[in-house]
Amino acid sequence: MTPEQCAAQVLSDFSITDIPILHFPHICEKRGIKWDEYPYNDAKYSGALHKIDGEYYILINSDCGIPTRINFTKAHELGHFFLKHPGEKFECSSNDIFTTDIANKPSEVEANRFAAAFLLPQDKMELLVSDDNYDFTTISGIASSYAVSIQTTVIRTITFLQGSFRAVWAVNGIVQWAIKSPHCKQPTLYKGQPLPPQSIAHKCFADNYIPPKDEYIKVPHGTWGHAKTPPTELVIPFKKINAILSITKW
Q: How far apart are CA 73 and CA 7, in angstroms?
């Protein structure tokens, strides 16, 4: 069973049809999981799943002050539990919560996939997103309604698009992660790569350019890949953390 299938099964087993994260206490109670939310005074610590003498405990760091991150951490720790990952203790840092390092941290990646699928159920997302409405208004609306971050929303929802799309999250002009829609054949981008100089995203960092909201702008051929048709790019700036979300479509 994939993490996505496991998440769907949990949603079905608990008859969850509204906002999934609201059911976290109920799920823990029914599965005999003890949990606690506490400010641990450590910004790098997100949460943990411990198994002690056959009993399960979920610990959540509330110190970050970001409700969407706390929600994702709760779902992530449930992922370790329901996916039956081997081990007595999973201590999850903020890096683990966003990792895509399947080679070195497969359990963390699977828990992230479970969390995204649990928080943003497939049947709901398929009704809300399409190639024609994939913009900031749609993405931010889903994020707000389901109490998740913009990043989580994009990573999850882009998988339901039929066209060729790629999303890139960059901080200080450097790619942190990139994800493609299932039908996108453009080259893979990796963490640590600089943004292409001709991209709208790079222009935002280099020139403090403020892109128009919800508008895909045509960029030169070859900026983001090698398709015959020049791509268009939608950019969402996050100035407080000097970050950019760039969505390109061909």
A: 15
Task: Say which CATH topology domain 123-249 has.
Answer: Beta-Lactamase (3.30.450)
Right CATH for 3-119 from 1.20.1050.10, 1.10.10.2910, 1.10.10.200, 2.30.30.30: 1.10.10.2910
Q: Is 233 helix (H, G, I), strand (E, B) or coil?
A: strand
For residues 122 and 214, give the distance between their C-alpha atoms in angstroms, rounded to a whole number.
24
At 146-181, the pLDDT tens digits run 999 999 999 999 999 999 999 999 999 999 999 999
Residue 184 Cα to chain centre, angstroms: 19
Contact 208, 237 (CB under 8 A): no
Sheet containing 89-93: give its strands across.
33-38, 55-61, 45-52, 89-93
pTM given for the model: 0.91
Residue range 175-222, pLDDT digits in tens: 999 999 999 999 889 899 999 999 999 999 999 999 998 999 999 988
Adjacent-strand bridge partners of 175: 170
Query: Which DSSP string do the residues of 183-219 spell out, in sequence order?
Result: T--SPPP-TTPBPPTTSHHHHHHHH---PPTT--EE-
